[in-house]
Amino acid sequence: MQFEKQVEIIAPREKVWKFIWDIDRFIACVPGCKDAKTVEDGKRYSAVMVEKVGPFKVEFPTTIEVLERDELSHIKAQASGADNKIGSRMKIDLDVNLREQDNKTVVSFVAGVDILGKLAALGHGIIKRKADQVLDEFAQAVKTTLEGDK
Amino acid sequence: MSKPMTRHADAQTISVSFTLNGRLQEIEVEPNELLLDVVRDRLGLTGAKRSCDVQVCGACTLLVDGRPVSACTTLAFEVRGRSVMTIEGLADDGKLHPLQEAFIEHGGFQCGFCTPGMLLASKALLDENPNPSEAELKHFMHGNLCRCTGYKKIIESIMAAAKKMRAR
Amino acid sequence: MLKRFRLEEPESAAEVSELLGRFGDSAKIYAGGTELLLAMKEGLVHYERLINVKKLKGLSEIAGENGTIKIGALCTHHQLETSPVLQQTLPSLVKLEQNVANVRVRQAGSIGGNLCFAEPHADPGTLLMALGATMVAEKSSGPREIAAADFFVDAYETSLKADELLTAIRVPAPGANSRSAYLKFGYLERPSVGVAMALTLDGPVVNEVKIAVGCAGPAPRRVAEAEALLNAKSKDEAVRLLPQAGAIAGRASEAISDLHGAQDYKEHIVGVLLKRAFNSIVS
């Protein structure tokens, strides 16, 4: 599943970039994500993703690897996790771009999301919708947090 | 005949007293036991088959109080106080039921895997509606799948049996 | 094989509510089990306790009283399809129930369980919405009524509170000139698209039009915009507006592209079924 999102944040690019690497605050913007930890600064992080669709709940201990990093402009990362209780795996390939436009920072990202295993039984459509919701909420949370920061 | 399972000391068990093919049975089951497993593994009646395991194919059909259920998705304790019929109970003391005779005479089975379910479901149909139209028959039997016959001979068998049973 | 669980067998709605409140997410209501046991067998959910509600009295009746048809939540699909009361007052619901899944699911599955599991590809919710039904939910503090239009929140999610039990569905008895129809389309056991329509025929005019679409999206939805378009129109005018209403209803269905069909395909089928439902009612 591929998702393309874009969010305009009224904040300077440096501030947005800095925020991304402030792992606790950044991860807090992902709905259902908790316990963010730095394993190797700038390279590897871990977190736990908890998502729910009705009575179906998943808990993915997730590893996030930073694959590419172009200061102030581009990040490529991969997140992967497995919920052994429910026999499912999750992989997200993330490509994030920052650019300045007028006095705003435009953050655009492409997310490739793969859900494998039993959870797929819920149906591609339902999962896609959920992933879309999570990504939308995430983008909004980043914007709200940064714009609220003084 | 019913083999007791190895149980946790504090496992919850439910006493299930029920009629099986006309005979009274008394067993203890844990809440999570499925009717299909109890019938096949504990009671040794392997006519009912586990096939799709999601109650769409009908190979596990049993009759509970005369009505068809998917044994693969029925908890065993649910038959307490009820009467259960498996395919092994369809023949009357060795004498074949008209449906069984009709399936033989009209070629209503090939590999036979779906056949126990087909027979029990069609028995429930004819008990409820002794003179079904073909449309009514197809509607009732819609949930019993066959991969071999293409259904034509099954329909013919059931209709033939219905005719014989009405004549009695 | 199912993982072990403890079976609770309460005898009152208050007890059920108390158990749900006490055990929270680790307990689940169990009636026919036709959806729940499948999810448990798949390993998608696990509960430490199942609360068997089938010992509760008074939840398995269907009766017409004071202009309302009351359907107990524990009524099986088989009970609904063979109910003399429903055959007389809500033939469209009878036809729907006759075609739920297969004979074995209809024997075991309850209407309450079907509605509460809120599986996206279910039928009854869509028609009950178009019939203006209300759901009766009970918990320790007492009962409340939820309009069907507000009952289905999302896929597998209803507006029931965690400690509430659905006890009945109340449907206003249709008047002499009221008609309803439910049409569905699908090649799998779970339909891909379902459209329900109810209206009153006052001579040449159609009134009180209610339209609901389901199965295509995450939950059934009423389509107020399409209803307003057709309402209070003459039959002929309504027929001319059907394509427009169909397009509106298609978009309102929140159709999701999946194995059951692409989004635009499902939206198109919504329009087709809406047209057919209308024509079957007014002819």
Observed structural traits:
heterotrimer, B: 168 residues, alpha+beta, Ubiquitin-like (UB roll), DNA polymerase, domain 1, five-stranded mixed sheet, 5 helices, 5 strands, elongated, C: 283 residues, Uridine Diphospho-n-acetylenolpyruvylglucosamine Reductase, domain 2, Uridine Diphospho-n-acetylenolpyruvylglucosamine Reductase, domain 3, Enolase-like, domain 1, 3 domains, five-stranded antiparallel sheet, 12 helices, 27% strand, globular
What's a concise summary of this model?
The complex is a heterotrimer of chains A (150), B (168) and C (283). Chain A has helices spanning 13-21, 23-27, 124-148; strands at 2-9, 33-40, 44-53, 56-70, 74-83, 88-101, 104-117. Chain A has 150 residues and is of the alpha+beta class.
Major sheet of chain A: 7 strands, antiparallel
The mean pLDDT of chain C is: 95
Biggest sheet strand order of chain C reads 4-5-10-6-7
CATH architecture of chain A: 2-Layer Sandwich
- So what's the overall shape of chain A? globular
- Helical percentage of chain C: 25-40%
Per DSSP, what share of the residues of chain C sits in E-state strands of 2 or more residues?
25-35%
How many strand units of chain A?
7
Helix content estimate of chain A: 25-40%
**What is the first-to-last residue Cα distance of chain C?**
52 Å
Sheet/helix structural class of chain C? alpha+beta
Beta-strand percentage range of chain A: over 45%
Domain count of chain A: the total is 1
Number of beta-strand segments of chain C: 15
Order of helices and strands of chain C: EHEHEEEHHHHHHEEHEEEEEEEHEHH
Uncertain segments of chain C of ≥5 residues (pLDDT<50)? none
**Most extensive chain-chain interface:** B-C, 32 and 23 residues
Uncertain segments of chain A are: none
* Tally of alpha and pi helices of chain C: 12
Distance between the termini of chain A: 36 Å
Can you identify the CATH superfamily of chain A?
A: START domain
What can you tell me about this protein's structure?
- The complex is a heterotrimer of chains A (150), B (168) and C (283).
- Chain A has a single domain, classed as Alpha-D-Glucose-1,6-Bisphosphate, Chain A, domain 4.
- Chain A has three helices and seven strands; from the N terminus they run E-H-H-E-E-E-E-E-E-H.
- The N and C termini of chain A lie far apart (36 Å).
- The mean pLDDT of chain A is 91.
- Chain A has a seven-stranded antiparallel sheet with strand order 1-7-6-5-4-3-2.
- With 150 residues, chain A is an alpha+beta fold.
- Chain B folds into two domains: 76 residues, Ubiquitin-like (UB roll); 70 residues, Orthogonal Bundle (DNA polymerase, domain 1), CATH 1.10.150.
- Chain B starts with 13 loop residues before the first strand and ends with a helix.
- Chain C has 283 residues and is α+β, with helices and mostly antiparallel strands.
- Chain C folds into three domains: 47 residues, Uridine Diphospho-n-acetylenolpyruvylglucosamine Reductase, domain 2 (2-Layer Sandwich), CATH 3.30.43.10; 111 residues, Uridine Diphospho-n-acetylenolpyruvylglucosamine Reductase, domain 3 (2-Layer Sandwich), CATH 3.30.465; 88 residues, CO dehydrogenase flavoprotein, C-terminal domain (Enolase-like, domain 1).
- Chain C has twelve helices and 15 strands.
- In chain C, a hairpin with a 2-residue loop joins strand 6 and strand 7.
- In chain C, helix 10 packs antiparallel against helix 11 and helix 11 runs antiparallel to helix 12.
- The longest helix of chain C is centred in the last third of the chain and has 20 residues.
- Chain C is globular, with a radius of gyration of 19 Å.
- Chains in contact: A-C, B-C.
